[in-house]
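Newbie here. two chains, one complex. Structure please?
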Amino acid sequence: MFLRVNPTPTELETLRECGRIASKARSWAGKEIKPGYLLRELQEGMETIIREAGAMPPFPAQTSRNSIGAHYCSSPSDNTRFEENDLVKIDVGAHIDGLIVDSGVSVDLSNDQRWSTLISAASDALDAAIDMCAPDVDVEDIGERVQQVITSAGFNPIFNLTGHGLGKWTLHDSPQIPNARIGLKGSLKAGSIFAIEPFATSGKGYVEDKGKPEVFMLERKPKPSNKIDLETLKTIQSWNGLPIARRYFNNLPKKPLERTLKELIKQGALRQYPPLVEVSNAQIGWKEHSIYLGPNGTEVLTA
Amino acid sequence: MTNLIKVTLSIIRKAINSAQGLGVEADSVSADQPSK
């Protein structure tokens, strides 16, 4: 079921506030990040900023390096540090009462700015896509424009990743907004909220699940089972179906948590989001903004 | 946080090269569901 938002004036103000909060967290991370910094600390630092500002993370903050396009979230004990020459994708959002914004930026940790053209290709594609946004615009026309900008810069888009609608308590709502003309059907609706996120790569332009998932989402009510710890389940359910991270639950006993996660996955109630890695191990640049298609035109909520 | 379309690269290439595309209804299929 889709819960597409056509926001009331109060909801729109809330979304704008979420946009300001997500931008603040993203900007902080962009300034704080440097070689040697723990990935986990940067992710948790962004989430602290979001909470202290009165919002909540609609998904775990993520920092994906190099050929990992998205969905790298630290485990509770992750001691991975950023390295010199990393190309880092910082992905962060905010929500208040289920009203969600989603945003992201790429950061070049090289001394010679070697990733600048890749980052610019994604950023220019996002600007071009935003310029096109209007009621009833076909999502495929946006995808085609994104692809044109990225290929003219000498790169490929990631063909199997898309932007998405943002519904109330629904991070991945319709429509899917592609990064190339790949045959999706759909259009932008007046009054809707959505995220556009072009990915540019020097590789083939295709990502696959690779590595241990640390992000999960409860998709349906599980069947009763003695393998499910009720306190753990109650905590997971308190996130109202938004994506969560294992590291959110450091305060819960580890064995019941792991047993519960395993059973929920086995039942198909819990969706897993492993890191997404480019198949040719190529570098990826990316940028994302959330947009409100209002009566006065396009409003970038996460600018 | 991006959305993954669960189709193979060869299918996407075929879609790009054909007028018909993937035939996925972006307005009627949950973005989190497999798209074929």
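Moderator note: The first strand of chain B starts at residue 3 and ends at 4. Chain B touches chain A through 26 residues (CB under 8 Å). Thread marked as resolved.
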